[in-house]
Amino acid sequence: MELPVRYTRGSWQNWLGRAVLFGGVGLFMYRAVTEWSRSGLGLLADALIIAIAVTGLNLITGYTGQLSLGQAAFFAMGAFVSAMLVTGRIWTPFITDNIWTPGWTMLAAAVVCFLVGMVVGVPALRLKGIYLALVTLVFTEAVRAFFKYDEFAGVTGGATGIKGFSYLPPSWTGLEGRADLVTWFFWLSLGILIVVSILSAGLIRSRVGRAMVAVRDNETAAAVMGVNLFSIKTVVFGLSGAIAGVAGSLFALKLTLVEADVPIFGLFGSVTFLVAMVVGGAAQNWGPFVGAMFYVFVNDFARSVGEDPSGSIFLGWFVGEGTKIDGLGGVTFGVLLILFARFVPFGAVGTMRMWRSKAVLVVPRVPLGAGGVPSAEVLGESGAVGAEQAATNIDPAEPPGLADEDPPGMAT
Amino acid sequence: MVRTKKLFALAAAGALVLAACGSDDDSSSSGTDAPAATDAPDATDAPESTDAPESTDAPDSTDAPDAGGSSGAEFVIDTENCDDPDAATAPIEGGLKIGTSIPLSGGPAVLFAPFGDGQQTYIDWYNENNGGLDGEPVELVITDDQYTPDLTKTNVDGLIFDDEVDLLSGIIGSGSNLAIQADVNALCVPQLWASTGASDWGNIDEYPWTTGLLVPYAIESRVWADFISQEAGDGATAALFYVNNEFGQSYADNFKELADENGIEIIGEEVIDPADSGAPSGQMTNLVQANPDAILAVGLGGQASAFMTELGNAKAANPDFDPLVYMTATAANPLFFDTLVENGGSDGVYTSSNVKFVSDEQFADDEAVQTYLEAMATYAPDANPADTSVLAGWLSMELAVYAAQQALAAGDLSRAGIINAARNIDYVPGLLIDGITASMNADDAFYPEATQLVRWDDTAKAFVVAGDAVDYNGSLGTYTP
């Protein structure tokens, strides 16, 4: 059999492949929820929340090519909006004293972040690359400073932050109060991630998605072809922010505490999201999920090496029983990240796709011309070659600016 | 046009470098020295309950043995509101298991990881010398949270549900402890000796299962305000230098209120961001201009030493500038002051401590100190016992095990029995300074309320005591947000 094997998109082989992928991930999730330890499941929930925020970043940075370090600002904003609503610090038309129903505050967070995101998108019309990163970085710090500002402490909590709220599982879930809190947040995060991923994938396949990719690949050409840069950039910034806002809201409800100094609400958060996006594979549907999983669990592994170097498979032969090395966990994580960047250059998903394409190629369905015959224009001289070309063109490729160079976040 | 672009590029590059460093400091500084750092809750209102002793001449009030202590009503925990009341009162069998969560990696780990050495050493030493608790060895599970509240939460979930620990003790950081407080109290697992001085740990009505380890920040502010009045007399002036987060804010608020009472005029207020690790030159310039009689300096880790370095420079350049300076107790580490001797900035700086500085010669015959030093040499030879972080870790375990012992003696070794014992504690470990009291009861929700003002002496390369120990035991009462 000649490699790569070609299957048409939508064929039963294609669906089988998808079924295996989704089935595998589903099985993994099922095992996690039934067999994993509580802290493991808690980490998984954290990874899912990060994956949601990264899905938003993927839209603006991965697909539209606007390098943003502002994702943590929206994340923080979502968290604070939720916390302020749940604790009744800002007036709301909904019941806020019922601790069973803070879920709706996620929607409020999304709306607020969408509107703010549109505004932040305006400078993106004039600024590119590193300059835009700079502006969004300032935005992140400004948001943090705003939430700490003394004058608004009555609403935002100021330097003290907001605490003393929680989101216990509703009774219809069959979960019981605090004992099942982790399970509850796992399901909630998983559900929201699935919804957000489906919406994001749908957007990418739409006309808007193609316009986003066009803006990324050649802004001038895109504008010439009739893409409205203003609306694309502002709306995608808004959407990206809204998604991060939902993630932040989830994060706050899970943590039961918001405070401007929590690291993920600042530059650390923006860099975390960027690293997760690049590690997973920019402009890939599965990238945010894989990248967030990598980030959280490799970091956890690095911590475990730091907690007990002699018990680790890497260092066990090297150090004595009970040895402690200060900062070893952080160094381990850094080294793993560098190795990853070196050997998996297009991110996990991008690289896996590259390997897979050597064995299996999914080619697009050939549009039918009159009379049910494949149209000659698409097939060109030889049908196979034309289809193959289409296949290489159809998937939005890795953004050149991100895949080829080390992302700025890696340097830290 | 081209020139503008170049300038812009330069600025961008510079900012990115800053950003890269920034993220680094971010973690390290938020952690740095304050076990209490991140967010010291609404300590603002604490002073209300502070009414107790005749504060003005506090330094003279030395050690009033009955300052508060056992005179209050006995505390009895109500397990009715627990998620699982039976589990809270069930006897602990098969050996006591303690869990904790501290920064072992990430920026703040450099300062806090030694805390874990102290914790583990105490447990090892205790098991070896006492045959464990009730014949069963005590087990300690230490987890790493990188000083981030979300990881603390994940860790504690694992500790409670997977490791099934009987109690938590010595978790570092206000943010970390606050993040778990509500859940842990609903689950009725003792959250003992939180390594922070925030007022929240005295909220006995809402969160009876949480107790604090450090001297409350409100007490420190009081000690310093009293000292200023005593040294500089009427019409004394003071300035504040503090980090803009809950930790700094709580000192500032407490001090301002006390300054009002003591007739101290505040003539300067300088703020630094938690993530800021640069030298506070601008702030120091303003302080020099204000030239107050005294300064209260609240910095996180590196910021404390950066402040003292600038202070040294400022004093050298301005012979008239010689204020009394107080550095918060979270920085009261001889190792830390010692590194600044060359610059001279730490000479004469005041701080306070309720623990013995074990490397001091005066403790050569002190039984508790010698036991501690021998245990450290045996079980953690690589750790530096003179590091007050190590010592605090040891104390967090000594007090946890003490509470369990008391519960056992009372015939109720259960989670409820342990929190009852802890909340009614009347015991001063040998490593705390001599001649003080430390206790809790239903009306006194803060454990250590006594401390000793000390001054760093460059020639002696050690802290020397300034006045007598100040014992405010019982004065803070309970805390209601």
Keyphrases for this structure?
heterodimer, A: 412 residues, mainly alpha, two-stranded parallel sheet, two-stranded antiparallel ribbon, 4 strands, disordered C terminus, B: 481 residues, alpha/beta, Rossmann fold, 5-stranded parallel β-sheet, 4-stranded parallel β-sheet, 13 strands, 13% strand
DSSP strand content of chain A: under 5%
Residue stretches of chain B low in confidence (pLDDT < 50, at least 5 long) are: 7-70
Output the radius of gyration of chain A: 23 Å
Cα separation of the termini of chain A? 47 Å
Q: Could you characterize the architecture of this molecule?
A:
The complex is a heterodimer of chains A (412) and B (481). Chain A is mostly helical. Chain A has one domain (5-411). Chain A is built from 17 helices and four strands. Chain A has helices at residues 12-35, 38-63, 71-86, 105-121, 129-148, 153-156, 181-205, 207-217, 219-224, 229-255, 267-280, 287-307, 328-343, 347-359, 376-379, 383-394, 400-403; strands at 5-8, 162-163, 257-258, 360-363. In chain A, the strands form two sheets. Chain A has a two-stranded parallel sheet. A two-stranded antiparallel sheet of chain A has the order 2-3. In chain A, helix 2 packs across helix 12 (287-307) and helix 4 (105-121) runs antiparallel to helix 10. Chain A starts with a strand and ends in a 9-residue tail after the last helix. Residues 376-412 of chain A have low confidence and may be disordered. Chain B is built from 13 helices and 13 strands. Chain B folds into two domains: 58-215 and 358-448, 3-Layer(aba) Sandwich (Rossmann fold), CATH 3.40.50.2300; 218-353, 3-Layer(aba) Sandwich (Rossmann fold). The longest helix of chain B has 30 residues, at 2-31. In chain B, the strands form three sheets. In chain B, strands 2-1-3-4-5 form a five-stranded parallel β-sheet, with helices on both faces. Chain B has a four-stranded parallel β-sheet with strand order 7-6-8-9, with helices on both faces. Chain B has 481 residues and is of the alpha/beta class. In chain B, strand 6 (237-243), helix 7 (246-262) and strand 7 (265-272) form a beta-alpha-beta unit. Chains A and B meet through helix 2, helix 5, helix 10, helix 11 and helix 12 of A and helix 1, helix 3, strand 2, helix 4 and helix 5 of B.
